[in-house]
Amino acid sequence: MRFVPLLPYYFIMDKADLKLKQLGDLLLKTGSLLMSNGASTARIRMTVDRIANTFGYEANLFITHRALTLTLSDIDHEHSFSSIKRTSPHGVNFKIVSGISRLSWRIKEENLSLETLDSELDRISKLAHYPRLIILTLVALAGACFCGIFGGSIQAMGVGFLATFSGLFVRQEAHKFKFNSYLCVFLASLTSTLISGLFCYLFPKGGFEAAYATSVLYLIPGVPLINSFTDLIDGNILNGILRAVHGIIISFMIALGLILTIALYQL
Questions:
Q1: Which residues contact 230 (CB under 8 A, 6 or more apart)?
Q2: 229 forms bridges with which residues in the sheet?
């Protein structure tokens, strides 16, 4: 019997299949980055289609809340590639979303290579948020301004600033220790309301109710709820429902922190 050595898969594939696989992996990476950083389903599909069409391929993408399934084929359907990729836990980083969108247009207008696409995706995926102190300070200032809009005094705005700053700090620290994302929201809500509620408890006529009510507004799941609405309007019913449930659970965790503080201080 003649012995035939087993060759690695990439030696058996021809150049067309290799290019197809490389592009498919990059498209899944693109979709995963968009999904995990707050992009809507329609935006993900549109961006992936734009890149695939630029390289002369047809992409069929199935998007769920935690995974992407892609089938990529050439125009003649002689070569095809199918794969699935899980997405990381969802957050919000619009610098990555806008960066990938601009990259997709550059690919279409400048005919960038797959190697350039790969290196640019690596660069975009490493884009950092703004410095932590700036985020904490500006979000806390926003909380203080909300307090003022709802009729809070200067003192109440100061309490709102302190409560928002502390709650967001706790949430960031909980994320560092890889706590469940919903638990992070609950801990942040509890921290903010404990601080603002303490002033309501100690100074019942001090007018700190506005600070208590607005100290958790930074936790409102605006992006998931907006994406849920746009997904439902676009006909992506499953993703719209899943994102709505995600937003509802976050809202429940915010309310749980508020209720626990009310019970503790008897407000």
A1: 40, 41, 42, 240
A2: none
Instruction: Write the DSSP assignment of the chain as a string of letters.
Output: ----PPPPHHHHS-HHHHHHHHHHHHHHHHHHHHHTTT--HHHHHHHHHHHHHHTTEEEEEEE-SSEEEEEEEETTSSSEEEEEEEPPPP---HHHHHHHHHHHHHHHHH---HHHHHHHHHHHHT---S-HHHHHHHHHHHHHHHHHHTT--HHHHHHHHHHHHHHHHHHHHHHHTT--HHHHHHHHHHHHHHHHHHHHHH-TTS--HHHHHHTTGGG--HHHHHHHHHHHHHT-HHHHHHHHHHHHHHHHHHHHHHHHHHHHHT-
Query: What is each CA distance from 224 to 38, 64, 74, 81, in whole angstroms?
Result: 7, 14, 34, 31
CA distance 124 to 119: 9
Place of tokens 């009729």: 151
Q: Cα(194)–Cα(211) distance, rounded to whole angstroms?
A: 11
Strands 67-74 and 80-86, by their bridges, are antiparallel
pTM of the model: 0.84
Instruction: Report the alpha-carbon distance of residue 38 to residue 91 in Å, rounded.
Output: 6
> What single letter denotes the amino acid at residue 165?
F
Dump pLDDT digits (tens) for 113-157.
999 999 999 999 888 778 899 999 999 999 999 999 999 999 999
**Sign of the dihedral defined by the CA atoms of residues 38, 41, 45, 46, in that order:** negative
Of 116, 136, 120, the C-alpha closest to 191 is 136
